[in-house]
Amino acid sequence: xxxxxxxxxxxxxxxxxxxxxxxxxxxxxxxxxxxxxxxxxxxxxxxxxxxxxxxxxxxxxxxxxxxxxxx
Length: 71
Hints:
Blueprint: E1 2-6, E2 10-17, H1 27-37, E3 46-49
Parallel strand pairs: 2-3
Antiparallel strand pairs: 1-2
């Protein structure tokens, strides 16, 4: 999860998700799953499905590359 620009609040929470091969889930299913397990302020407003997360050559997550354009 990471913050993205928001006109009203400054930032909002978003998430990028990589599904395992053969797995399926909708944005609504994942939102409901997260809502049941986390505090309200920790639930992302949007979920983006991606094929892979950007990583360095040593395998660390490149968080800055996760941030989407605010459009």
